[in-house]
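Rather than argue in generalities, we reproduce a single protein record, letters for residues, whole numbers for local backbone shapes, just as it appears below:
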Amino acid sequence: MLTAAATLAVTRNWRLLAPSMSTSLPSLTKPALGAAASATPAHRRWIGVGLAAAVAGAGTVAAALPWAHTLGLSALTLSIVLGILVGNTVFPRIAPWAGPGVDFCKNTLLRAGVILYGFRISFGQLAEIGWAGVAIDIVMMTLVFTIAVRLGPRLFKLDRDTALLIGVGSAICGAAAVLAAEPIVRAQPHRVSIAVATVVVFGTLGMFLYPVLYPHLGLSPQTYGIYAGSTIHEVAQVVAAGKAVSDSAAAAAVIEKMLRVMLLAPFLLLLSRSQRDAARPRVTIPWFALCFLGVCAINSLNCFSPAAVSVLNNVDTLLLATAMAALGLRTHVRAVTQAGLRPLMLAGTLFSFLILGGYVVNRTLMSLLA
């Protein structure tokens, strides 16, 4: 009897408490769920960073093998090759989890690596580039962009926005320039994706082609570096193409590329003024290029010991290799095939001009202004 009475009392009390508990449970669980949700992006970032670092580690190990030395393949080059292989096989399955971290490596770590690269360069090397390097960048940027906006709509029947974005990416600094110009052009998202895909493809091709062409160009390592820095699309690709030849070629290539990147801000100002819409967005300033110059100044003053600079250079190599691996992971063959033939034809035409016309411009201006 006592047990039955107790059971009946518990049942009645549960019926009374259940509504209040059901209403209070969401308020108790929301903070926990919110904390879990807020932790998820951080976890995803670390998954992507770990994946890119693993690919970069594999590329670094492979670069130490005898066959890689024979072929002249650096850790940066092999990192992006392995990244492309993984990016078109395994990565699409885990992209929802690893994507944020891979993008962090491709953007933030790349810029950090470029800034730290300043510890390999002094103002004396910057002076060796001189006004000839600045003139080469201005001439190449103007010619490439003009060819894109003229030939794109007329010869290849592309819309103005796609032609303009492909021209910006080819003329200045690849995908970063495309994304910086997008708020000004206000192009549709699929056109931005097409422009990014084309410049990444041809920039990657140039990264492999330039070192092969080097013995036949009749250029010194420094002039080759200027040529590569003024004509290859992405910063990371310029570093890899220079490293494949020599450290002095890489230093000249990075200096020339940073001068080219710093032209992005004035170029975007001019582009915004050319738009018919009076409401112009803010222009993106490539602060990492200015930080690169600041690090060059610190290195020129010998503020750090040789041992400390050596450690920083090793960290820099790790950051750049990870960024290259991430760039490869985000280079998808499907995006290129979906772009269609006409955007690829325009990007290929600009790529050909960068190689051939860029060579002529470099040789001419270097002889006139050196």
Remarks:
- Residues 122-324+332-369 form one domain.
